[in-house]
UniProtKB/TrEMBL annotation:
Membrane topology: Multi-pass membrane protein
GO BP of this protein: phosphate ion transmembrane transport
GO CC annotations on file: plasma membrane
Phylogenetic classification of the source organism: Bacteria, Bacillati, Actinomycetota, Actinomycetes, Streptosporangiales
Residue ranges constituting the ABC transmembrane type-1 domain according to the UniProt record: 143-349
Coiled coil: none
Family: Belongs to the binding-protein-dependent transport system permease family. CysTW subfamily.
Pfam families xref list: BPD_transp_1 (PF00528)
Entry protein name: Phosphate transport system permease protein PstA
Length: 361
C-alpha cells in the first residue's frame, strides 16, 4: 500500500508595503501666486526706495526672486524632484511673459495712437485733393486697394498652391516631386523686393515701362503667397490619416474623388488656416507694391488694370515719409485698420473651420 504524499501548503507571500510618498506634504495651492505677489510688492518697494524704479528691472527682479524662493520653499517642504519641476515651470512662464511683452506693447501702441483718428470719416474718404498739412482725408482708397489686390492675389495663389500641395502629397514621386519641393522652399525665403522686381521686369516686357497698376501688385503678392500656401496645405494634407484613404479605395472610389470627397473635407480647417496665414503674410507687404502698384495714388481707384492703386502698407509708408503730426496720426490709424482687417480675416477662417470641418462627435 503506497503512502500518499501530502502536498505542502503553499506559502503565501505577504503583500509588499506601498511605496512611500515621493515627497512630504505639498505646498498649498495658493502659495505660488501669493509668493509671486509678495515678491512683486517687495521688489517694487526696494526699487522705489533705492531710486532705481524701472518696469523692466522690476519684472526681472520679481521673476528671479520668485524662482529662487519657490525653488527653496519646494525643496524644504516637498522634495528636490518637485523643486526642479517648480523651477522649470517658473522658467517656462517667464519665457512666455517675455514673448508676450512685444506683442502687448505693439498692440497697445497702435491702439493708443491709432484711435485718435480712426473714425467713420477716416474710413470713408480718400486723400484726393488733400495736402500733407491739411487736417482732412482718410484711407478709403487704400483700404479698397488692399482688399482688391489681396483678393486677386488669393484667386491666383490659392488654386495653384492647393493643387500643387495635392500633387506633392497624393500623386508626386521621384525627381519631379523633389524638384518642386526644393523650389517651393527657395521661394518661401525670397525677399519681397525680389518679387516686386520680377513683376516689374515682366510688366516692362509685356506692356512697356511705367505701367504700374493694381494687377501688377496683386501678381507680385501672389509670387510671395504661393509657396506659403503650398507648404501649409501640404502639411495639413499629410495629417489626414491614410486609413480614410484606404477605406475609400476599398469601396471602389477613384483616387481623384477620394481627394475631393474625403481628404479635402477632412483637412478643411487646416487648409483654411494655412490660406489665412498666407494672406496675413502678404497683406502687409510694402516694397513690392511700391514698385508695381505705385505710391502716389490719392484718388479712389477700383480698376485693377488701369492706373496706380494705393494700399494700406504703402499709405502708412507715404504718410510717415511726409512727416508731421497729422500725417503720423493718419499712419497710426492706417496701421490699426490693417490689424483689424487681418483679425477679421482670421475670424472668418475660424468660422469656416467651425461650420465646414467634419464633425468628430
Amino acid at each position: 500500500m503506497s503512502a500518499t504524499k501530502l502536498s505542502a501548503p503553499e506559502k503565501t507571500v505577504p503583500p509588499r508595503p506601498l511605496a512611500p510618498s515621493l515627497g512630504a506634504k505639498p505646498l498649498p495651492a495658493l502659495f505660488p501666486p501669493t509668493l509671486l505677489a509678495g515678491v512683486a510688492l517687495v521688489a517694487a518697494g526696494l526699487l522705489y526706495a533705492l531710486g532705481w524704479w524701472n518696469p523692466a528691472v522690476w519684472a526681472i527682479v520679481t521673476a528671479v526672486g520668485y524662482m529662487v524662493l519657490i525653488t527653496a520653499a519646494s525643496a524644504l517642504v516637498e522634495n528636490r524632484r518637485k523643486a526642479k519641476d517648480r523651477l522649470v515651470t517658473a522658467i517656462v512662464y517667464t519665457c512666455f511673459g517675455i514673448a508676450m511683452v512685444p506683442l502687448v506693447s505693439l498692440l497697445w501702441t497702435v491702439l493708443s495712437k491709432g484711435l485718435v483718428r480712426l473714425d467713420g470719416y477716416f474710413l470713408t474718404v480718400s486723400m484726393n485733393g488733400v495736402t500733407p498739412s491739411m487736417d482732412a482725408g482718410g484711407a478709403y482708397h487704400a483700404i479698397l486697394g488692399t482688399l482688391l489686390m489681396t483678393l486677386m492675389a488669393a484667386l491666383i495663389s490659392v488654386p495653384i498652391g492647393l493643387m500643387t500641395a495635392i500633387y506633392l502629397v497624393e500623386y508626386g514621386q521621384g525627381r519631379l516631386k523633389r524638384a518642386i519641393t526644393f523650389f517651393v522652399d527657395v521661394m518661401t525665403g525670397i525677399p519681397s523686393i525680389v518679387a516686386g522686381l520680377f513683376v516689374v521686369a515682366l510688366w516692362i516686357l509685356l506692356f512697356g515701362p511705367g505701367k504700374t497698376n493694381g494687377a501688377a501688385g496683386a501678381i507680385s503678392l501672389s509670387v510671395l503667397m504661393i509657396p506659403v500656401v503650398v507648404r501649409s496645405c501640404e502639411e495639413m494634407l499629410r495629417l489626414v490619416p491614410n486609413e480614410l484613404r484606404e477605406a475609400s479605395y476599398a469601396l471602389g472610389v477613384p483616387k481623384w474623388l477620394t481627394v475631393v470627397k474625403v481628404v479635402l473635407p477632412t483637412a478643411i480647417a487646416g487648409l483654411t488656416t494655412g490660406v489665412m496665414l498666407a494672406l496675413a503674410r502678404v497683406i502687409g507687404e510694402t516694397a513690392p507694391l511700391i514698385l508695381t502698384a505705385g505710391s502716389s495714388a490719392v484718388a479712389i481707384n477700383a480698376n485693377l488694370f488701369e492706373g496706380q492703386m494705393m494700399s494700406l502698407p504703402v499709405f502708412i509708408y507715404s504718410q510717415v515719409r511726409m512727416g508731421g503730426v497729422i500725417n503720423y496720426e493718419r499712419a497710426w490709424a492706417g496701421a490699426l485698420t490693417l490689424i483689424i482687417i487681418v483679425m477679421l480675416l482670421f475670424l472668418a477662417a475660424r468660422l469656416v473651420s467651425h461650420f465646414f470641418a467634419p464633425k468628430t462627435r
